[in-house]
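hey can u run this one w/ iron/sulfur cluster bound, need the structure tokens asap thx
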Amino acid sequence: MEMKYVPTTCPYCGTGCGFNLVVKDAKVVGVAPWHRNPVNEGKVCPKGNYAWEFINAEDRLTTPLIKKDGTFVEASWDEALDLVASKLKQYQGEQSAALSSARVSNEENYLMQKFARVAMKTPNIDHCARLCHASTVVGLAGAFGSGAMTQSIKDIADADVLFIIGTNTLEQHPLIGRRIMQAKKRGAKIIAADPRYTPTAKLADIYMPFYSGTDVALFNSFMQYIIANDLQDKEFVEKRTKDYDKLKEVVMKPEYSFENVSKITGVPAETIKAAAELYANAKAANVLYSMGITQHTVGVDNVKSVANLQMLTGNLGRPGTGVCALRGQNNVQGACDMGALANVYSGYQSVIVPEMRKKMQDMWGIEDIAEGKVGLPVTRLINVLADEPGKVKAAYIMGENPMVSDPDLHHVEKGLRNLEFLVVQDIFLNETAALADVVLPAACYAEKDGTQTSTERRVQLWRKAQEPPGQAKADWEIITALAQKMGYEKQFPYTSAEEVFKEVAKVTPSYGGMSYERLGIEGLCWPCPTPEHPGTPILHKEKFAHPDGLGIFTPIEWKPPAEVPDEEYPLILTTGRCIWQWHTGTMTRRSQSLEREEPTGWIEINPEDAKALGIKDKEMVLAKTRRGEVQVGARVTDEIKKGVVFMPFHYIECAANFLTNNALDPVASIPEFKACAVRIEKIAEA
Ligand code: SF4
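ok here u go:
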């Protein structure tokens, strides 16, 4: 019996915890603490603890599949790749699209965007960051010149005041939640805004149960109070920012008085005032947010409002301050960094700048990569597939499951079924793969080397612990083989993930000083431009990343969500995660220890709303929106605001995304998952 411990990085949330995979007789059989990892110091949450259970699930994909007469038939790699290569050659340019993945490594995301641009010649490359933090990338880049979390996770413990809004950190990023608890233990005060009285909200000294979609009004009222009482950080505003007067003009409007904002948010004026007062007088204050802020038609406005507040109070570039945009999936930060986005190459180098396109062409040794134009982001791609059939005819999807993750699932299915050719590369035959013409079996995180980048911009190593099942291969190997089949041997010569990373470092300035050797135990936070650079845990210490070094205030008016309650659909539906499941459940629902804790979905409803509808706790109800309906069990609880209902989005059998609205933020193209109008009906007894 051979046993070994292989240190690696968790495949679930964006915290980036490290742990050891326990390997017995060449198979992963458990997880053990890795005490030297600086992120989590040996601790893990339940998902991390059971991150080994799905690896050897019986229904892992082990061989390529080709659909013949509506049924999947096993195929050889040669047969499957020949078919995919011939189809992707047939549908070149804007007739095709590729979706990369926040679950796979940096190397694989880099290769997928390179493959789309070099071999498919398409600008249509994107991934699910579009669904979670596209507004952060756009909003923070607009304000600070860099679209990422400004601080390190450890640094959260040094804040005097934490404003937690739109994140249930204790359940969604538990090891970041640990730092919040450390801050509280030190005496930090906590303000929480959430329509649900979550475990995180329960830590708060001041809790604001506000209506989903009223964030901008809340931030503006804070800023009005700060300016009216001369509490802004004048030196910071003067020396490090511009457009303060434009901000002032908007936030000082009577609409943003505490009394008026109380009417908009449903939070008592005196509670908002107490929170604003506490925040304004903090020495070091940090805002933590996640998808409660970003997943709105005003997602970018929300993010810019966070940036406005932090610049106004000078809470940036110092320990304990900052904007902590908590990225969702393990490598969503890395997938963005690697250029798996419709508008940028790796390192956020714009596709529409001719010099950048030339740089990539020179680097990749080819002169006809995809046109230098912004491609279709995934949300707009789905709309094109569904509403303009024939415009995009083929898609290559790696490690994504839009048939559960995207809004308005009937619309998504219609779009995917309109494709003439769909190839899906994944570790399980998920709901999206079931619709494919060809399925390519991939290795999971434990079966390959690579790197991933956490929410604090920390690039860390994955280390291979076991062989992939059957004929499954690492995503980087599959993309390389496919590119070679299409005639791009010179551009895709790779024999290891490390070779790919060396190229990433060459073409991506913020990763320029990184190597596998340097990443070692602790990893490195970008920017790390040279081999001597120690990495950058805190951004914007002396200047912002804009060319003039200044941060930019943006005046923002509050706008209601795209769909608001009315007589027919009188409640607000908001969606999110639970601690036991992950995203579309592809991995966690195959983990017995996690699945048994929350084996299906539910809808939370306030007792007053439930009483008015004659609904009892645990009763099955019908939730209906303008887009669809699902049957789901009711949880009657006073831990949700009256007028709002909540559903987790992991469960296909009662998928919240049959109900959600695909109205998009006009700049970031992120959908409004967090607010739509819904009706709850009692199901008549038979
Ligand atoms: Fe994994 Fe996130 Fe849990 Fe850490 S907090 S163990 S990264 S799921």
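The first helix runs from residue 46 to 49. anyway lmk if its weird
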